[in-house]
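Box 3.1 A note on notation
Throughout this textbook, protein chains are presented in two layers. The first layer is the amino acid sequence; the second is a token string describing backbone geometry. Keep the layers aligned when reading.
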Amino acid sequence: MGEFVLPAGGAAWTSALLGGVADLGVSPAAARQALMRMSHNGWIRTSRQGRRARVELTPEGVDLLQTGSQRIYGFGVPDSDWDHRWVLIHSTVPADQAAARDRLRTRLAWNGFGYVGGGLWLSPRADRVDDARRILAAEHLDSDAVVIVGGPPHGEDPRRLVDLGWDLAAVDGEYARFIADFDPLRPDGPAGCFVALTALVQSFRHFPFADPDLPAELLPPGWNGHRAVELFARRRAEWLPGARARWDELERGAAAAR
């Protein structure tokens, strides 16, 4: 929806959505279940216009897609010189608050923090300290947490901290597979572009969560992330016009139906 519905005003005919997912090989029953889950989560609402149904993004749905789009399409942009400051967080979550612990882990990881054990999280991006504090406050963990901004302990190799917090070899391997999948791909026609673009975004959207977006000097030699980010931007620019032409075709067909 972020590629097609959101830019078109945040609404679409249900039959157009079903036609789009049919292009992707998804059954109508599975697609309707997905729409029901989105409605249950408060991200969309449905209205009837005669025999036809129209789906509209709620303000919460718009915010969700806009936040996700900013994270995906702004990810991997070359940064300025690193100031060598880190954010360190120490936060322990009581054993009886497993849900809060899972949310904290997910949200901190999404913001590029690595977990090193013992309730300790870290990031070499000092500008993420406000994000960390907002996350802790949202989970009512800020009063017992310790948040420190500064350089690593004297004599500590920053790359050792990276090895403790993240498995960069695994992420690099995922980037290599992404490149192998989409570098040779040449879709045919608007429907082919629609399918290829959807697969491209679906595959890439994982990286802002898995890749902490470390400063260049902390990355291993031959890091595949740079090639993958460039390939994603290039393929999206190539396939987006055809994909949107297919989406417009689906919307026109749905609007003309009676």
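The domain at 86-151 is CATH 3.30.70 (Alpha-Beta Plaits). The mean pLDDT is 90.
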